[in-house]
């Protein structure tokens, strides 16, 4: 009679013994793939540094010499067009103007006397009591007096001009960057008093290579990087000469008035140059280094079993790399499947399993 204990052990052994055929099943590493999509070129991202400058800045000076009487604007002040910034003392100019006015009155009195003498001489000549010589002398004197009157009047006009130029006014609205005079100082027209920078119409000046200048000019929109912000502008003007120092062409981009910038601040031009070349965009993770400095990708060749592929290496030439991918040149055909990542765990000739196929790779 068979013991119940032996029957129980026999039943347990039948349930716990695994299938020997299942343990012998081959393991195939799973890979993720992408499909190549042929491209006829790629964009190279370039960034050119430039300087922000005010479209207008002026060094202001007095037009006449004198002593500074008032200073009405200081560094950092915002001023409006026509606003008075400083004035000179006018006392000496007013005294000189009074002297000229007195000289003019004297000449005018002499002209009145000369005119009266001419009238008397003409009456005597008609009566035959004097000669023509006396009239000629008075006529010559009249011409001298008229010339003296014009000269004094011109001096008066010049003195009034100087009086009107004893004040410096702002030629445009802006900010006072420098003040170089003080009250009570004697100044001359050669001494700079203020440096005024226009408050709006700032522009970014960027030097670019000669071969790119025309292409950038022909663009309808331009991307600028200022204060870590992307600004799109639609205007550009170029100098007609090349810088003798950097051998570049200077481009000027007018900035919007609502952007707060400072004179001499750095700004950047983001430019994408399109280069024609046949090739493919691939992820950086799909490229591995080969022998003697070459670069390789893994392609997949189908096997007799579904979803199983054999890996093969193909040498590629890297034409351009950015943070999103690489543009390569290769003899591979369009729609070829390559391994996307994990290449450090793969070798040529290895059989791998593909479950999910990624879409085609285009320009990033």
Structure, explained:
The chain is an alpha+beta fold and 364 residues long. The protein has 5 helices and 22 strands. It has helices at residues 4-16, 20-23, 91-127, 132-164, 210-218; strands at 29-36, 38-54, 57-61, 66-71, 78-79, 84-88, 167-169, 174-179, 186-187, 192-198, 202-208, 222-226, 229-233, 237-242, 249-254, 266-282, 288-289, 295-302, 308-321, 326-329, 337-339, 351-361. A hairpin with a 2-residue loop joins β12 and β13. The radius of gyration is 46 Å and the shape is rod-shaped. Residues 1-23 have low confidence and may be disordered.
Distance between the termini: 80 Å
Order of helical and strand elements: HHEEEEEEHHEEEEEHEEEEEEEEEEE
Structural class: alpha+beta
Number of helices in the DSSP assignment = 5
Report the biggest beta sheet as strand number plus sense, adding barrel if it closes. 14 strands, mixed
């Amino acid at each position: 009679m068979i013991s119940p204990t032996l029957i129980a052990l026999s039943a347990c052994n039948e349930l716990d013994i695994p299938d020997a055929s299942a343990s012998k099943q081959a393991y195939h590493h799973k890979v993720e793939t992408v499909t190549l999509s042929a491209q006829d070129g790629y964009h190279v991202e370039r960034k050119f540094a430039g300087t922000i400058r005010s479209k207008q800045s002026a060094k202001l000076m007095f037009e006449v010499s004198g002593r500074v009487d008032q200073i009405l604007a200081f560094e950092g002040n915002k001023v409006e067009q026509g606003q008075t910034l400083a004035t000179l003392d006018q006392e000496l100019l007013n005294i000189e103007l009074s002297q000229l006015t007195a000289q003019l009155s004297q000449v005018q009195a002499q002209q009145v006397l000369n005119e009266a003498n001419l009238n008397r001489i003409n009456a005597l000549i008609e009566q035959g009591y004097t000669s023509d010589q006396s009239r000629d002398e008075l006529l010559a004197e009249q011409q001298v007096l008229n010339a003296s009157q014009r000269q004094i009047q011109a001096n008066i006009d010049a003195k009034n001009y100087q009086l009107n130029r004893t004040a410096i006014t702002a030629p445009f609205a802006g900010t006072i960057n420098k003040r170089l005079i003080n009250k009570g100082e004697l100044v001359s027209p050669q001494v700079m008093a203020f440096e005024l920078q226009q408050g709006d119409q700032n522009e970014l000046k960027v030097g670019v290579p000669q071969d790119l200048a025309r292409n950038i000019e022909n663009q309808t929109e331009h991307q600028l990087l200022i204060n870590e912000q992307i600004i799109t502008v639609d205007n550009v003007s170029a100098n007609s000469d090349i810088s003798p120092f950097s051998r570049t062409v200077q481009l000027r981009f007018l900035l919007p008035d609502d952007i707060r910038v400072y004179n001499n601040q750095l700004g950047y031009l983001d430019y994408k140059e399109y280069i024609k070349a046949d090739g493919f965009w691939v992820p950086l993770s799909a490229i591995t280094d080969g022998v003697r400095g070459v670069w390789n990708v893994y392609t997949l060749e189908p096997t007799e079993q579904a979803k199983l592929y054999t890996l093969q290496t193909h040498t590629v030439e890297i034409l351009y790399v950015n943070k999103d991918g690489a543009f390569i040149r290769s003899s591979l055909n369009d729609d070829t499947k390559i391994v996307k990542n994990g290449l450090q765990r793969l070798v040529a000739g290895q059989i791998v399993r593909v479950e999910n196929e990624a879409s085609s790779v285009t320009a990033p």
